Amino acid sequence: MMDWTDPACRYLLRLITRRTLLYTEMVPAQALWYGRAERFLKGHPAEAPVALQLGGSDPAQLAHGAALASEWGYDEVNLNVGCPSDRVQSGRFGACLMREPQLVGELVAAMREATQLPVTVKSRIGVDDMDDYAALQGFVAAIVAAGCDGLTVHARKAWLQGLSPKQNREVPPLRYARVSALKDDFPALPIVLNGGIRDLDTAVSWLDRLDGVMIGREAYHNPWLLAAADARVFGEAGTPPPEREAVARAYRDYVARHWREGVPVTRFTRHLSGLFQGLPGARIWRRALSEGGAVTGAGPEVIDQALAARHRAVGETPVSAG
């Protein structure tokens, strides 16, 4: 989710769900090693709970990143060994590390020594032709022995050559049974399923078998699917979900604060595009955000204008901002 789940995105999602664990973009441990912590780690306290996701292959750098996760108020630190992009491979991190389970174990152990936070791993079920279940078992055994506190598994293998990152999310078949089998073999290890989950009904159906479900791009493009998560997943049945327009107006206040500091409004409005996904007027809403944000000097009033445009399109009476 690089360039997607930035602080602005996480703030918006937190207005929709209070309990869902959010993840940062994958942060290169090397960048933190060279003193760029504020750029990559600064967020808003209201985003919590948030896991800091790190990429790297150097034990000292990852230990440093794990220590910074504690200092900057994160709730978990996650090592990504599932990303298949060429840019990530060139830095010797991401999915290519699944070929080196001993090294990944050393990385987890170094992170475990550096923080009291949960240290987790995000992986695939395999890479290239190394995709038999025995290899996956060996990989998981190595990180468990190193002190891993949890594993999130994208239930597809990754092809490191020949497929783009987008194709790697679509072409290799989903093999949920392999993730389920891991729970039998490692019952004490919290295991979270990732890949192809697009609605809460499907997510909830896995919770009797596994310990959690990760929803990635679908939650970005259609964030309102998380509105019922607090009630359905976390048992807060007495807490009504927020209203979409109330979320948009609360986010507007956040945008206004940062816009006054010189941050372009499009850095924020791009995350709002899917807020009315599936409802009448959603296309008008998206267009108004896009066109309004493109105007020189545009500010948070773009959100008000987009709300008004959607109201006109569907014949609704605008809700007072007061």
TrEMBL record:
It is an enzyme of class 1 (oxidoreductase). InterPro entries: Aldolase_TIM, DUS-like_FMN-bd, DUS_fam, DusA, tRNA_hU_synthase_CS. It comes from Spiribacter roseus. The keyword Metal-binding does not apply. The active site is at 83 (proton donor). NCBIfam families: PRK11815.1. It comes from the Bacteria. Its EC number is 1.3.1.91. This is tRNA-dihydrouridine(20/20a) synthase. One of its GO terms (molecular function) is tRNA-dihydrouridine20 synthase activity. FMN binds at residues 53, 122, 154, 194-196, 216-217. Transmembrane segments: none annotated. It catalyses: 5,6-dihydrouridine(20a) in tRNA + NAD(+) = uridine(20a) in tRNA + NADH + H(+); 5,6-dihydrouridine(20) in tRNA + NADP(+) = uridine(20) in tRNA + NADPH + H(+); 5,6-dihydrouridine(20) in tRNA + NAD(+) = uridine(20) in tRNA + NADH + H(+); 5,6-dihydrouridine(20a) in tRNA + NADP(+) = uridine(20a) in tRNA + NADPH + H(+). Belongs to the Dus family. DusA subfamily. Belongs to the dus family. The record marks 80, 166, 169, 283, 286 as: Interacts with tRNA. Signal peptide: none annotated. It holds the Pfam family Dus.
